[in-house]
Amino acid sequence: MSSREEFNPAALRAALVGTRFPARLHHFPTADSTNTLLLEAAANGAPEGTLYLADEQTVGRGRGGHAWHSEPGSGLYLSVLAKPSLQLREALWISLATGLAAQSAIQTTTGLHIDLRWPNDLLFDQKKLGGILVEAAVEPDANATLRYAVIGIGININHEAFPTELSALATSLRIASGQEQSRNALIIALLRALDFELTQLESNAPGLLARFTAASTWVRGKRVRVPEQGGYTGTTAGLDPHGYLLVDADDHTRRTVLSGGVREEN
Fold first, then answer.
1. What is the set of domains in the chain, with CATH numbers?
2. pLDDT of residue 1
3. Which residue among 65, 128, 207, 224 has its CA within the 20 to 30 Å range from the CA of 262?
4. Based on the number of CB atoms within 10 Å of its own CB, is 242 exposed (0-12), middle (13-18) or buried (19 or more)?
């Protein structure tokens, strides 16, 4: 039976003083989807830094509409409202920055070094232990400026097992490390790192792309299958200036991947 460490909202707020989050943290024992709830709040004028944290999601969502297995009390399921001064074509930077924050937080709290599968998956030993879903609204102006972005993060922490259909694909920090992990410690480290990344986002995009490239084995030299454009295989060749993945396809063309779903080609 997985551990049921309770979140401590008061302690979390105290530990997050100095970031954009402590005064706007909202904790739910259960929620259908923290992203859905926060998107509604954002549309109604919620301030930047609003944070929705749930012990369980009943209708958790991932990129592309995939379901997310949200075992009660064992994982981290949260959404954050950000309002960076970016254009829509730069929105992918938010997902990349969030991946770097998650990688740093997991290294700090567990000692595990995870991989980042472009653009939004957290992996350990080729199995998925977390994911990121960014949903944005755009201002009705000629520049397609972002009005706000809701950043959803799900991380498997103390799951001891998964449903049969997921067991070959998913893992958790507990399985990877061999010991129980603190959800409170991870969320503090994650939100501190995310606050830093969001602050850096607008001022140092080239640095972000270089750091993500260095942090991920998927950005350069990885043999991959790409489902879009009719499906093709090739070798990853870095990121373009907007953070999209470049692939040298086997037909000798260089292609830009515009969506997720990239998988390793064996």
1. 9-215 (3.30.930.10), 220-264 (2.30.30.100)
2. 40
3. 207
4. middle
